[in-house]
Structures are given as structure tokens and as C-alpha cells.
Amino acid sequence: MRFGHFDDERREYVIDRPDTPLPWINYLGTEAYFGIISNTAGGYSFYRDARLRRLTRYRYNNAPFDFGGRYLYLRDPGTGEFWSPTWQPTQPELDEYECRHGMSYTQIASSYRNIRARVSYFVPLGETLEVWRLRLTNERAEAAELSVFSSVEFCLWDAQDDATNFQRNFSTGQVEVVDGVIYHKTEYRERRDHFAYFACSEPLAGFDTARESFLGPYRSWDRPIAVERGSSSDSVAHGWQPHGSHHVRIALQPGETREIGFVLGYWENPRDAKFDPPGSQTINKHMVRPVIARWLRQDTVDEGFRALREHWDNLLGGLQVSTPDGETDRMVNIWNAYQNMVTFNMSRSTSFYESGIGRGMGFRDSNQDLLGFVHMIPERAKERILDIAATQLATGGAYHQYQPLTKRGNNDIGSGFNDDPLWLILGVAAYLKETGDTSILEALVPYDNDPGTEQPLYDHLQRSLRYTLDRLGPHGLPLIGRADWNDCLNLNCFSETPGEPFQTTENATGGVAESVFIAGQFVLAARELAGIAALVGRPGQEYLDAAEKMSGTIAEHGWDGAWFRRAYDFHGNVVGSASNDEGQIFIEPQGMCVMGGVGVEDGTAATALASVRERLATPHGIILQQPAYSSYRVELGEISSYPPGYKENAGIFCHTNPWLMIAEAIVGNGDAAFDYYKRINPAAREAISEVHRCEPYVYAQMIAGRDAPTHGEAKNSWLTGTAAWNYAAITQWILGIRPELTGLRVAPVIPADWPGFTAVRRFRGATYRIEVRRGDERSLTVDGVAVSPDAVLPLAQAGTDVEVILTVS
């Protein structure tokens, strides 16, 4: 069952009914000001940090599910009837409805009682504000008078404090209304340097800034008293809940169209800004007034929207493909690349499933996100790498997360996830392969953001590798610490007495539990670091030796006969073995070990991949492990707390699926690699949206496994490493357009029934026009000159076009 369709020409997903199985969201903003917005205008906005600079309020896990947003109300004074053109929150029986989610913008259109409305939302480039444009058309035979009410619920800056500290917050809310602009200045009294504002392009018939005055006692957003009676009360909030609402009255002749603009924004005065008069608690508005006036003009909005579209034309132009599979083209050319950008901006912090409070930017997560983003804006990728590295500890370890506003490690989460440091090597390698910019390796970066501890980034990479070598367990495998990639596999948990609460060893970061997954990751990272060393003329043989030694350890202690084992727990018991009654085979080491090259030459890799297909593959994707854990096991920790088939307990954790796609490509099995790709491709799952439930245009973190009653149902869409890894799997390994340290390689491993494909790839300033076609013999020509089909393409001069023709058998 479909709830919409793709409009590839406009790069939009068109939702044609508002009651989607779950809120289907989009993101506004690309730089510093961001927001999430659902297909019925739900969501919220923030500046840089969803916890520390929250602008508007949203209520997660509420009923209705999508609660709080950028709401507008229309009222017909002749009948007293009112409705929301975005469906929520009044949920009228609209005559027509359409939501278009595009690249960093959303447009929601509807018709009701012959009044047509279209609301556009976007964040202009270079600004810390969002624009709402309401376009109204009277399709009645007679003139229509209408009242328009806007509505936002201001938050109190720190979203955690806003959700908990009511005894204080109900007494601190302050606003000013000057020339029709509502200024929310709750924190201004204390800091006097930042505030939010909400403005309207039309003369006001009234306003409200106190939520209870707008809604009325014991009422909700579906029937605000101000809208019901048709007039605002000009309320000014003093404590309680600051709110922003404008009331505009307009008259439309038959066929007439009018536009009304709204601007919601954030402003931060320079630290040395002068206050007039000195010490005044009145907001210093002179700097922001021209900005507001400019973005309330229709011509400015037109130009801003055009610039946003051009911005995405350029970003998406870095790689465009034409293959025999339209759903592949749709994801590679538009939606997967777009999701990569959003995930790069947000890490795992802000979505319909992440509140923006509990998680900041992930060390592991952000490094992986680079894989899908670095080719679009390399300079931002470089900045992110240096931010991440500055949170690394002097031991080589890492804070698992850091706050985007402060760029400091999150002590609430702490460190001890022993896979984290190795991801920095893989992230830097991705940047170097794309750009060739070796200067980043000499950039001075502190440890733990501590001034005076600066060392070249290359030193951070060396310490990342040393962190693993300094923490090897009884079998010579890396210690898992609190967890490795699978945060819920907590093998340093144990119970002294059956039935008693579990304990942890050294806060679960020490102990003797070992990870085969980290061992495979170490082999991959050590080989990458050896390549980087060779690129810059440094010694790197020790890294290759360490990789070879770890490969041998995996072969001795990590191989189970038909697949790679997962780990050893605190007691030294094997996890992920045929000898276990449950959890016999896990997906993660099968993918990571093969990506590291373990077992590729001796055939064990092919055996492991065959076991995955036999034991773990389902029509909805590859499940994480089998059999599922049927009861809680204290020695395994959180993984067994989930019911069978969900999340880490035998769910389809989509993040790991592309590792198997890459592994199959490495061993030359294009049919299997593409088969796995199609199983979780959201565009290919659009026809089963009533089962999948999440958005059909972006990847989800998890799909319920075959042990679950809801097999095939997705959760946790948008912010997931699935996006970057699937992009890498399809573009770099299946299509085979792969950046390497010395240049660009074209080495596709495509399905047997494909006649070929074409692609345009920008790389280090040049544009490569690539054609892959079937033939009797493999051959490669570059600008008409034959070269070895196994060669890395010669680096071209920036600004030039390169014609590449590869024939594959």
C-alpha cells in the first residue's frame, strides 16, 4: 500500500494522504539552524544544538504521536468554522491534501471549502531563521474573508531543563512585542546576548504570547479559544508558557491569491554589542531588524528558495548514475545522498526517535557518516574530523559522544567503547582518499580539548591503533570494554549469584571479555594506516605486521568452523558459536572480518558468507543473530533485554547489512551483493508501506526480524549509519566507483543480468564520465587511451572532463 509517490524530476517525495503509518519527516537547514518537520507540520527548531539551543517545543511519545509544530489556522468568520491547512492539529476532512518533502524544504498544500492553501517551510542558506510562506487562493464564486492565526510554542533553550524544571521555568518566561514582532527573551535577562523571534509580513489584528491565553484553559491545539472566537487577546507572557501567535485578517476576491510570510529565527548578539540604555533588559533589536524585514519580503524569499535549490543541485552533482534499476538511481542520485547530508549534520541526536537531549554527536557515528558525505563538502568533513579528534583522550580512547555546541566530550556517556578509536582512522582514510589533502595529518589537535596537549592528527591515529594493542585479552583478541559496535552486547556484566542484580567490572570498561568484531576492525584500520603512512613517506610496516598477527589470532580463536565467532564473555565463554544454544551466528564479524581481508584468500570468507545467507538472510534484510535470545542473560547484558526479533536481539539492524554487501563484492559475488542491497532499499519497499511504516525515501536503523510478530516493520528512520554504509556499498563496491589514496578506481561487481551503467563523478576537481558495458574481455580506456583494467585512473587536472570506458565480461 502506498501513501505517496516519488517525483524524481523535482527531487521530492509526494505524500497524498496525511494519515501516514507514522509521521514521515523531513529536515530543514543545512548549516547551523535546523528543524525537523513532519508531513503535517509537526516538529521543532534549534540552533546548532538540539538540547542547549532549542527554540520550539515538541512532545515525544505523546498522543497523538506527532504533537507540537509549526501550526497555522484558517477561520471563516461568516460560519465560525476553522481548520488547519496542514491537517494537524485540527484534523479536518480536507477536500485535497498534498505534502512535498524536498531537499531541505517542505511544502504542504490543501483545499477546504474552496479555499486553497499552500505552506512552504525552509531555512535560507547563511541564515539562522526559517521562513514560512502561506499562499491562499479563493476558489469560491464570492469574496471570502478569512482570519489567519500562526502558532509556535517557545522552548526555554535547554530542552532537558524545559522538560523537568517547571518550578523555575514557569516563573522565567518573558517576551516583548514590538512592531508586530514577538521576541522570546527568557534567557536574555541572564545572558543578554541571544533570543528568538517570530514575525509576520502583514499588519496584525492581534497577537498572543501566553499559551493559556491562546488555547484557553483545559483546551488543546485542536481548538484554541483565540481561533474559535476569531480574535487574539494581545497577551504578554509573564512566566508560565511563552507562546507566539499572530492574527491576520484578509479579504480575497474570487480567484485572488495572497501570500503571507512568517519568519521564526534565532539571534545571537556579538559579545561586544552595546546595550541601549546600558543595563537595560529590553532586547537590543537594532541588529536583527533589517534581517527580519528582508526575509518578510516575497522577492527575498523567492531568491532564497532558488539559492537553496541550486545548492542542492551542486551537492548532488558530485555523483549521478544511470543503471538498469530505477530504485537504485533514485536512492544514489537523490535520497541516499540527501540522508547522508542530514545524518552528517545531526549524527544520532535529533529525529522523531531521538529527542536531541540524550545524545550528542557520536565519535563512532560521526566518523562513519563521513563515508557518505565527504565527496559533497570536503571542507566540512575536515572540520568534523578535527572536532572529533579533539575529544579523543590521551590514552587513545574516546568519549563515546560529544555535544555539538561545546564540542566537548559527554561525561554522562563517558568512554570505554573499545571500537571507537579505530573509527577515527577509517574516517580520516575516507577523507584522504577523496581529497588527497595530506595536510590534515599535520594539523595540531588537542587531547580531551585540553590546551597544551596538541599533537598532529597523525599522532592521534597512531594512538588509536595503540589503544587496541594495549588492551588485548587472554586469547590475544581486543578487549571489548563497555561494548564494541553493538552497544547492547555488554559482556563484562556478570552476577555473583543467579537471580541477583548484575555487576560490572571497572564500570564495564575493564574485565577480560574480548571482541572478534574489533579484531576484524583492527585489521582493516591497521592496513588503512599503513596505506596512509606510505602516502606521506612514513614507516608503516609495523601496522601491516600487526594486521597480519591479528588475522592469525582471528583464524585461531575467532573462527568457528563455518563462520567467525562474535566474542568471548567475562567468564571466557565463547559467544556466536555453534556450541551456543542461542546466538550462534552474528552478522557483524562476518562483514567486518571480510572487509578487513581476513579469510578472503583461504576461502573461509566465502564459507562465512554462505552461512550468513543460509542462517541470517530474510526477505526484509539480514538479521543480526540467530537463534534469538529467548530470555534475559545477565552475562550478555542489554542485547537479551529486547524481545526476540527487535533491535539487537535478532532484529534486522540495517547498519550492518551493507557490510555484507561489501563483503560479497570483495569475493566477486555481484548478484548476492545487489540482492542484499535491494532487500532494505526503502524505495524498493514503498509498495509495502503499511508493513514497513517508516518513510519510503530514507533508510531506517532497524527492521523487525523474523522472530518478531511484526516482521518487516521499520523503526528509527533517518539518523543511522545505514545511510552512509549503503551509499558506500552501492557506489564504491557494487558500482565500483571507489576513491583510493592514489586516485579513483572503477571496479564494479554488478549483477550478471545488468548490461552496464553510466555515471558522472566529480573527483579532486575533475569530472569523470564513466561508462561500464558488457563485452567478451575486460578493458579500460581513459580519454581513448588503453590502460590496465585493474589500474587506478590517472589523476586528471582540476576543471577537466575525463572519458572512461570500462568493459567487463
From TrEMBL:
Name of this protein: Glycosyl transferase
GO molecular function per UniProt: transferase activity
Keyword Transcription regulation: no
The Glycosyl hydrolase 94 supersandwich domain, residue ranges: 11-293
Keywords tagged on the record: Glycosyltransferase, Transferase
Gene3D superfamilies: 1.50.10.10, Glycoside hydrolase, family 65, N-terminal domain, Maltose phosphorylase, domain 3, mpn423 like domain
All copies of domain Glycosyl hydrolase 94 catalytic, residue ranges: 311-736
Species annotation: Dactylosporangium darangshiense
Annotated InterPro entries: 6-hairpin_glycosidase_sf, 6hp_glycosidase-like_sf, Gal_mutarotase_sf_dom, GH65_N, GH94_catalytic, GH94_Enzymes, Glyco_hydrolase_94_b-supersand
SUPFAM superfamilies linked to this entry: Galactose mutarotase-like, Six-hairpin glycosidases
